[in-house]
Write a structure and sequence with these properties.
Structural class: alpha/beta
Largest sheet: 8 strands, parallel, barrel
Helix content: 25-40%
Strand content: 15-25%
CATH architecture: Alpha-Beta Barrel
Order of helices and strands: EHEHEHEHEHEHEHEEEH
Radius of gyration: 16 Å
CATH topology: TIM Barrel
Shape: globular
CATH superfamily: Aldolase class I
Number of domains: 1
Number of helices: 8
């Protein structure tokens, strides 16, 4: 089971996550709400230190391809995580302008409508990330909520789409094993479940990886 540690805020946090076995690190740019946001200049400094074999994800809420391309080139990451809805036309432009850069589209699991949403975007991206949020709410939450969504819907998406699926949303050491067994995702993604006073907590990090490894061994 692959693990993505999101909301990395410093080189030290990146090094800690990699030391415990993270397969990918998430770096959060400007968002309408939520935790983990850091300046673009710091994102680049952290991305430059991420070793080969560990994917660097830029989380962006931008929706136009021209702006996203510029942001990726400034950040120097190898993966773009699109946390807001992007049209197929813009996804095609991104693919054309960013050869070799992976595209991961977030689908917020608010109802069974997420199944159709995931199926419609899957042909245009390298992976889908299922998260909890309120993209249409008065306060737009596009991730980092710390809340669990309906894993039965997530499991149906994993079964029905052809591309890899990441599972996020309220994961922590106590429930990650159950989430993996229920959903069978390609990877799990965690942010708030590993942070204390807005810092990556090594004790929680170690416990989370233990929960993942126990599931792998079962």
């Amino acid at each position: 089971m692959r693990v993505k540690i999101c909301c990395i805020s410093s080189i030290e946090e990146a090094e800690l996550a990699v030391a415990y076995g993270a397969d990918a690190l998430g770096l959060v740019s400007q968002m309408p709400s939520g935790m983990g946001v850091i300046p673009d200049a710091r994102i680049r400094r952290i991305a430059e230190t991420i070793p080969p074999g560990v994917s660097s994800f830029l989380l962006t809420s931008r929706r136009d391809s021209q702006s996203i391309v510029a942001q990726q080139r400034e950040a120097g990451v190898d993966t773009i995580q699109l946390v807001d809805r992007i049209t197929p036309a813009e996804l095609r432009r991104l693919r054309s302008c960013l050869p070799g850069i992976s595209l991961v589209q977030v689908v917020h699991v608010t109802s069974s409508d997420a199944i159709a949403a995931a199926a419609s975007v899957a042909p245009f991206v390298d992976a889908i990330l299922l998260d909890t949020g309120t993209p249409d709410g008065p306060v737009r939450e596009l991730g980092g909520t710390g809340r669990v969504h309906d894993w039965d819907i997530s499991a149906r998406i994993v079964a029905e789409v052809a591309c890899p699926v990441f599972l996020a949303g309220g994961l922590r050491s106590e429930n990650v094993g159950q989430a993996i067994r229920r959903v069978r995702p390609f990877a799990v993604d965690v942010c708030s479940g590993l942070r204390t006073d807005n810092r990556l907590d090594e004790r929680l990090l170690a416990s989370f990886f233990e929960g993942v490894r126990e599931t792998d061994a079962a």
